[in-house]
Design brief:
Number of strands of chain B: 13
Number of domains of chain A: 3
Distance between the termini of chain B: 47 Å
CATH superfamily of the largest domain in chain A: P-loop containing nucleotide triphosphate hydrolases
Order of helices and strands of chain A: HHEEHEEHEEHEHEHEEHHHHH
CATH architecture of the largest domain in chain B: 2-Layer Sandwich
Number of strands of chain A: 10
CATH topology of the largest domain in chain B: Nucleotidyltransferase, domain 5
Oligomer: heterodimer
Shape of chain B: globular
Distance between the termini of chain A: 99 Å
Radius of gyration of chain B: 27 Å
CATH architecture of the largest domain in chain A: 3-Layer(aba) Sandwich
CATH class of the largest domain in chain B: Alpha Beta
Strand content of chain A: 15-25%
CATH superfamily of the largest domain in chain B: MutS, connector domain
Strand content of chain B: 5-15%
Helix content of chain B: 40-55%
Number of domains of chain B: 3
Largest interface: A-B, 93 and 117 residues
Strand order of the largest sheet of chain A: 6-7-8-4-9-10
Largest sheet of chain A: 6 strands, mixed
Strand order of the largest sheet of chain B: 3-4-2-1-5-6
Chain lengths: ~375, ~500
């Protein structure tokens, strides 16, 4: 049951008024304060920015201490000279697992005076080519962002444009083929990069047939060196490109090393002067879990190719030709004659068959065996 | 903006036979095409017609009906007003824009005008991906930018605005370098004139790294109109104080100003002066390179495994945003780079001080976003608390950074950057005044909303003190009266407050 009395109603009115009076006063004070904050907004914003910048500087120092990072020497030269550098992301991931990271040096000079302008990086897949390339590009970003870098020393002449085509996905413009994409992006580099730019390129030409790819990679490397004149790292699996070292004035070969030990492949993740002697592709295939039959067969073919090369061809300044010949010889020598069964199979167009006809075909093929 | 507003004739035909509230709804709706309209009715925001169907599907709301319009049922869906923010957040993430139509007067005011009078309503805000200010809608450690792209006389300009922090900048560029700049800013929303969108290449680029694209009519990109809008936005007579802007920059900045005016329903935010950026001031990194180097995100889109996540040791969300901005746009002048490096080296050499500074920063809140909300007339008592606490912290920080040795106090060994920070943290007179007031007025732990009061210390204002005493004493009176009545009647009577009866 509920009751109300005149006394209560009067009281209610007083309470309600006092309550809403209090709230309205609070709101008015709030509005005053808000207006005062608003009129001081600019010094307050500056204050906040100062806090953020202090936070960043202290955090960067914290990270630098932890990673034993070093202060980069940034100047107007065209030099890129990193000693004992590590990949900032990979080193952190490895450290979490308690594993060491192999530091690497990289020395480039667009003027060609203190080092090569272009490094051609060869070495087996999985040996760390991409990590090496990316690591050097990240040093540029970190140094120019005003951060210390994971290296024992680093001198950098400021870079105006940074280009990286290392394992970039093709999500940027869907619908184009990977090769088309690769060419569009490489074209952008060759037209936009300057003498002051830094370029890392991985496996240019991989998206097309071998000779096309090699030819394009060769021409791009030449153009980067001769026309663009940017500091560049150029990774490739075309070992023929190693000859560019003797053809171009400011080019060195660098290889990511690996050793075969008891038939197993050990990656050393170390960048050394000189071209890789072989690609270890077959070993990598085994590591990747290819069926042993396929690996054995690949080894056979590889040996044959290598002897063919040595006997028939001279690898001078026309590596294209060498590959062409090798490829062609494989194609002809390895092809056995077609059997009846294969002929019959080739004659079938599955799209034209009704289920009933398909069944008949199976019976006929069974009869051929 | 996406849809064309219906012509007046269409609107008239639509209004035919509508109830007064429905007519009000249809008029507001017609003036704000391209957004889901949240129409405030009492304690709910209601959506009607197609909006109701879309929202019901997107938010799994019950689709109901409310009366008939021109012989057809009116589909309706609604969300409680107090929980609307969460629903709006969800819709924004799904790519919708949401127009908020509030009641602009107390329903009792409307009743005074007559029995049938409709409560005044109007758009108070349009919520879009690039104009968010609420913490619940924003990513804590990420920036949220709105950009406008314009081209006048063959020159292209990109202007960007971050409503949640007040940053505004613009730069001239070429179509070839647009990708570099756009991917550095990573906007949540892009305003682009219809004409530019016809360029297939440009469209693909915007789609890739421009966030939600809002096509703008050509009329909005006029530079002189843009200049006028910009002056209004900043409340200035002339833009000379900000530097000289080219027609294309004015056009892009003007598009931003128009959009802010539209989405904030005329409320002017507190913005920093527009910064004119030289296109060559930064290391140019194109979108593919960013993707390949995994600077802020990996190629799969996660933060984990990116350069940023590997090196980010910042304490505050603002610090994290600044570090991300620096990594997105490294500098290219050795002088400036070395100034930053000097500050890092200074902190590296002073381990105990560094730890102390980091310790203090742990308690800091996001004042930039609180300021933006307060500036727009949103925000609550807790935003004032953020300002008060930051001002407190600034005082502490300045004291902390001062050398302990009295002799070197006159000439501290600060690098230029640290010196500038200490100066910015040293409050001027009016700011000190504000701090003094906030400390006196605001309770220690204020509530989020102003709705229930209790955020101002009663002692701050004598009138407030009186009203509160009366209110609290009244409660005492009720208790006393209850006891009296119980004694008088001998019954266990209770006097309770009831929202309906009083």
């Amino acid at each position: 049951m509920r009751f109300s009395t005149p006394e209560l109603i009067d009281l209610d009115a007083r309470i309600a008024r006092a309550g809403s009076d209090a709230l309205n006063l609070e709101l008015a004070i709030f509005e005053d304060l808000r207006e005062e904050v608003r009129s001081n907004a600019h010094p307050l914003q500056d204050m906040f920015d100062a806090f953020c910048a202090l936070d960043v500087a202290a955090a960067a120092a914290e990270w630098a201490e932890d990673l034993e990072a070093t202060r980069p020497v940034v100047d107007d030269s065209l030099i890129f000279d990193a000693k004992g550098a590590r990949h900032p992301v990979v080193v952190a991931a490895l450290r979490a697992e308690g594993k060491p990271f192999t530091p690497n040096d990289c020395c480039l000079d667009a003027s060609g005076q203190t080092g090569p302008r272009l490094d051609l990086v060869t070495g087996p897949n999985m040996a760390g080519k991409s990590t090496f390339l990316r690591q050097n590009a990240l040093l540029v970003i970190m140094a120019q962002a005003g951060l210390f870098v994971p290296a024992t020393s680093f001198r950098l002449g400021v870079v105006d444009r940074l280009f990286s085509r290392v394992g970039a996905g093709d999500d940027l413009a869907q619908g184009r083929s990977t090769f088309m994409m690769e060419m569009v992006e490489t074209a952008a580099i060759l037209t936009q990069a300057t003498h002051r730019s830094f370029v890392i390129l991985d496996e240019i030409g991989r998206g097309t047939a071998t000779f096309d790819g090699l030819a394009i990679a060769w021409a791009c490397a030449e153009n980067l060196h001769e026309v663009v004149k940017a500091r560049a790292l150029f990774a490739t699996h075309y070992h023929e490109l190693a000859q560019l070292e003797s053809l171009l004035a400011h080019t060195h070969n660098i290889s990511m090393t690996a050793r075969e030990w008891n038939g197993e492949l050990i990656f050393l993740h170390e960048a050394r002067r000189g071209a890789a002697d072989r690609s270890y592709g077959v070993q990598v295939a085994r590591l990747a879990g290819m069926p042993p039959v396929v690996v054995a067969r690949a080894k056979d073919i590889l040996e044959r190719l290598e002897t063919d090369k040595a006997h028939q061809l001279k690898l001078d300044d026309l590596p294209l030709f060498a590959t062409v010949q090798a490829q062609v010889s494989v194609a002809t020598s390895q092809k056995p004659a077609e059997t009846e069964l294969e002929k019959a199979l080739k004659g079938i167009n599955p799209d034209d068959l009704s289920p009933r006809e398909a069944l008949e075909v199976i019976y006929r093929l069974r009869g051929l065996v | 903006m996406n849809a064309i507003p219906p012509s007046e004739k269409d609107l008239k035909a639509q209004l035919d036979g509508a109830t007064p509230v429905m007519a009000q709804y249809l008029e507001v709706k017609a003036a704000n095409p391209g957004s889901l309209l949240f129409f405030r009715m009492g304690d709910f925001y209601e959506l009607f017609f197609e909006d109701a169907e879309q929202a019901a599907g997107a938010l799994s709301l019950a689709l109901t009906k409310r009366g008939k319009h021109q012989g057809e049922d009116i589909p309706m869906a609604g969300v409680p007003a107090h929980a609307a923010e969460a629903y709006i957040a969800k819709l924004i993430r799904m790519g919708f824009r949401v127009a908020i139509c509030d009641q602009l007067e107390d329903p009792s005011e409307a009743k005074k005008r007559g029995y049938k009078a409709v409560v005044k309503r109007g758009i108070t805000r349009i919520v879009t991906p690039g104009t968010l200010t609420e913490d619940s809608l924003l990513e804590e450690r990420g920036a949220n930018r709105l950009v406008a792209l314009s081209q006048r006389a063959g020159v292209m300009a990109l202007a960007s605005l971050e409503l949640s922090t007040g940053e505004v900048e613009c730069l001239e560029l070429t179509p070839e370098t647009l990708g570099t700049h756009l991917s550095a800013l990573r906007p949540s929303e892009s305003l682009v004139s219809d004409r530019l969108l016809q360029d297939e290449h440009l469209y693909a680029l915007l789609k890739y790294c421009g966030g939600a694209i809002q096509p703008q009519p050509a009329s909005l990109s006029d530079p002189s109109a843009g200049e006028a809008r910009l002056k209004r936005l900043y409340g200035v007579e002339t833009l000379d104080g900000f530097g000289a802007f080219s027609p294309s920059e004015l056009s892009a900045l003007g598009m931003l100003a128009a959009y802010i005016d539209l989405t904030q329903a005329g409320k002017a935010p507190v913005l920093k002066a527009p910064k004119k950026v030289a296109s060559l001031a930064y290391l140019a990194i194109d979108p593919s390179t960013r993707l390949s180097l995994e600077i802020e995100r990996t190629q799969k889109g996660s933060r984990e495994g990116s350069l940023m996540s590997a090196i980010d040791r910042t304490i505050t969300s603002g610090g994290s945003r600044l570090l991300a901005a620096r990594l997105s746009r490294p500098l290219n002048a050795p002088l400036e780079i070395n100034q930053r490096l000097d500050a890092v080296q200074w902190f590296l050499a002073q381990r105990p001080l560094r730890q102390e500074v980091r310790q203090r920063l742990r308690g800091m809140s996001d004042m930039a976003r609180a300021l933006s909300r307060l500036g727009l007339g949103r925000g609550g008592p807790r935003d004032l608390k953020v300002v008060r606490d930051c001002l407190d912290l600034a005082r502490d920080m300045v004291a902390l950074l001062q050398p302990t040795d009295p002799e070197s106090r006159l000439d501290p060994d600060w690098p230029a950057e640290i010196h500038a920070h200490v100066e910015a943290l040293t409050a001027g007179e009016t700011v000190l005044d504000l701090l003094f007031k906030l400390e006196k007025a605001l309770v220690d732990e204020p509530p989020l909303s102003t709705r229930d009061g209790g955020f101002i210390k009663p002692g701050y204002n004598s009138h407030l003190q009186d009203a509160i005493t009366l209110r609290n004493d009244s409660r005492q009176i009720i208790l006393r009266m209850e006891a009296d009545l119980q004694q008088e009647t001998g019954l266990p009577l209770k006097i309770k407050y009831n929202a309906v009866l009083g």
